[in-house]
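FIELD: query
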Amino acid sequence: MATLPSPAEILWQEEHISDNKAPDIIAFNVICFFIACSAVAARFTARRIKKIAYGADDWLILAGLFVTLGVVITSLLGVRYGAGKHAILVEDPAAGAKVLLAAEVIWGCAISTVKVSILLLYHRLFALNNRAFTATLWIVGIFIIGYCTTQTFAALFQCIPIEANWTVGIRHHCVNSELGGTIISAVNVLTDFVLLVLPMPILYKLQKPWAQKAQIMGMFLLGGLCVDQTGSRPRNV
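FIELD: result
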């Protein structure tokens, strides 16, 4: 919701006028997206070298990478319009609010695409003749798609009319964005955790020495942490 800073907020911002998180926003997006690109490129290269046919999980993670690029672009555009700086320094707050709204909507699409691709990968690797695991993947997948779809629409229509996100003084109705953001973050962390632990029982039962099993589990956990960072929700800074 578009609001003007209070006198107390203006005074505080003037006292901390040199604060600037824009370099942090740029570095975070560039580094995380570079890691994501490297991981996807390595995955496709390994498939080609081993002459393994590409699956739905491969194409979906590639689609997720392109959608994530949209999040990165809108985040960097947000810096162009003042993200990371105090509100009193922002010259075009309406443009910044529009970019932030676009980033939140695109993020919902990106995170669902990436997480469903992980479930498809699990299905390809572990679900053979395992009906219980397949059913679990379906349940988690439906929940993720439903949650991300809800989040996307909630971000788009957090204020009615939508113009209230960047226009001050018009009649509007907005949800509690701080509470909504907290709920979204909590559910996102929960689904991240579920994705991390889903294959662990199967990996634990592998007929391999403990050292090798620990290495395999570590690789899955590291990959999950990378997904969590590259899919971090854009927010007002």
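FIELD: remark
The first strand starts at residue 159 and ends at 160.
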